[in-house]
Amino acid sequence: MTQRRPAQFINGQLREGCSGIDFDVVNPANGVVVATIELASVDDVNDAVAAAATALPAWAGATPGERSTALHALAARLGERAEEYAQVETSQTGKPIRLSREFDVPGSIDNVSFFAGAARHLQGSAVAEWDGAHSSMIRREPVGVVGSIAPWNYPLQMAMWKILPAIAAGNTIVLKPSEMTPLTSLMLAEDCVAAGIPAGVVNVVTGAGPEAGEALVSHPTVRMVSFTGSTPVGRRVASLAIDGLKRVHMELGGKAPFVVFDDANLEAAIHGAVAASLINTGQDCTAATRAYIQRPLYDQFIAGVADLMKTVRLGDPIDPATDLGPLISWRQQERVAGFVDRALADGARALAGGRIPAGSLESGAYFEPTLIVDAAQTSEIVQNEVFGPVLTALPFDSDDDGLRLANDTPFGLAASAWTTDLVRAMRASREIEAGCVWINDHIPIISEMPHGGVKASGFGKDMSTYSFEEYTIVKHVSLDITGTARKEWHRTIFSA
Asked: Residue 421: which of 404, 402, 434, 394 has the closest Cα?
């Protein structure tokens, strides 16, 4: 029997939504309904924002040590429930249990531990007398109530990236997860309260974007909006937020280039390309999607990638032997298939995959690992975000050529360059337009370093202490140290 469960967490309590609209959370590996929820209404959003606003003064006034202690307790609690989180994450997304156990959940716990420490280390300039008459200092203060919208591809990790820097800096938050994957976000909100984070500091509203999402972004009490998702939706969110003069943080789409120079370690590049294009079934904004290979290595590279892709095992996500799970939905499966079909119709070739698998996988939203060659640089499959297990490969001649092609996209979230030459590596890291450039690897992220893009991939940083730039107000405090009533600058006003 399908489990019906409340999907709103407001002021420390789980409760049903008020929209009257039911929604099924479905396991895309088999079509089984994991939970039935009632979506949030505008009233639910209003209640959540009110709870966050009420909790704000006390939480903002808590000492960094108090906030740190609560976050350390949260990390410990998540560690105890790690397997439960992994199972739930896999059930709602279809991602392989190995990915949930070895990447999503431990990475999320590490984020909590990092921000537990970072809460006590907000940075500012040293106090100084810049003009000789005043002491200047910097205060970092919370922005206020934050409204955040997270996507469905990494539900737990994206909830962490939104919640942790915000509350570590003293803000309160209302998070809207995707209605397709809300379950681990709700677990996290419950664990926040259990760990000692006061009710109202972390709230979750599960609803559709046009209703709950737009109500949250437009709410007059919300001082900052953080959004992760597609670039077209990001434009809509940004326009609503800017109308209210809110601070905006955007982590949007990507079309990451994977540039292989002719001196690269070919085996490493082949394995790196397959892993980086297929992680999370390609549903990753930083996934390698455009491989550019210098011509001397091109034929060997595409042959090696095609052969390796054919060894990747699709199957039941809960089976530890499964390498690749389904896409998030059958709608997404249709979208990915459409990109590939149109590319093949335009003259491209699929050296691996290119199809919806048959047989025992037909009941799920699966798509084969796919390598596309002979597509034009201007084609949609090269230029647009597919968000599936699809890698395109194109040759290039000169280094200038390869870097030009890497930048020939509206996006700029992530990229990688593969070379054993230091000068080439440094040039690529300097000239590729992306928020992150890996050298001889592609995908690894760490809590200590920032994540965020440029161009149509957005602006602002997640993770690291750089994220505090997004979630704090930098206030200059100036103190007169002369004690004089009549200041020297007053002569610009008084003639005598």
From this structure: 402
Q: In terms of Cα–Cα distance, which of 237, 222, 240, 215 is closest to 151?
A: 237
Burial class (CB in 10 A: 0-12, 13-18, 19+), 425: middle
Q: Which of 285, 368, 433, 470 is catalytic?
A: 285
Position 29: which residue type? A
Contact of 462 with 251, CB cutoff 8 Å: yes
* CB environment 139-154: b (16+ within 10 A), e (fewer): ebebbbbbbbbbbbbb
Cβ atoms of 47 and 19 within 8 Å: the answer is no
Task: For residues 384 and 132, give the distance between their C-alpha atoms in angstroms, rounded to a whole number.
Answer: 56
**Does the annotation mark 436 as catalytic?**
no
**394 φ, ψ to 5°?**
-135, 145
DSSP single-letter state for residue 43:
H
Angle of CA points 95, 82, 159, to nearest 5° = 65
The closest of 190, 180, 199, 183 to 5, measured between CA atoms, is 183
- Pairwise CA distance, residues 436 & 452, whole Å: 7
Judging by DSSP bridges, how do beta strands 458-459 and 349-352 pair with one another?
Answer: unpaired
User: Under a CB-based contact definition with an 8 Å cutoff, are residues 249 and 283 in contact?
Assistant: no
Determine if the pTM surpasses 0.85. Answer: yes
Structural domains of the chain in order of their starting residue, each with its CATH number: 3-252+453-477 (3.40.605.10), 256-439 (3.40.309.10)
Q: Does 285 qualify as catalytic in the annotation?
A: yes
pLDDT in tens, the chain (496 residues): 568 999 999 999 999 999 999 999 999 999 999 999 999 999 999 999 999 999 999 999 999 999 999 999 999 999 999 999 999 999 999 999 999 999 999 999 999 999 999 999 887 788 899 999 999 999 999 999 999 999 999 999 999 999 999 999 999 999 999 999 999 999 999 999 999 999 999 999 999 999 999 999 999 999 999 999 999 999 999 999 999 999 999 999 999 999 999 999 999 999 999 999 999 999 999 999 999 999 999 999 999 999 999 999 999 999 999 999 999 999 999 999 999 999 999 999 999 999 999 998 999 999 999 999 999 999 999 999 999 999 999 999 999 999 999 999 999 999 999 999 999 999 999 999 999 999 999 999 999 999 999 999 999 999 999 999 899 999 999 999 999 999 888 999 998 7
- Residue found by looking up tokens 């709410």 in the block: 219
- What is the spatial distance between Cα 452 and Cα 6, in angstroms, rounded to a whole number? 33
How many angstroms separate the CA atoms of 100 and 320, rounded? Answer: 11
Catalytic residue, candidates 251, 368, 433, 470: 251
- DSSP secondary structure string, 274-339? HHHHHGGGG--TTSEEEEEEEHHHHHHHHHHHHHHHTTPPB--TTSTT--B---S-HHHHHHHHHH
Phi, psi at 344, each rounded to 5°: -65, -35
Paired residues of 136 in beta bridges: 128, 478
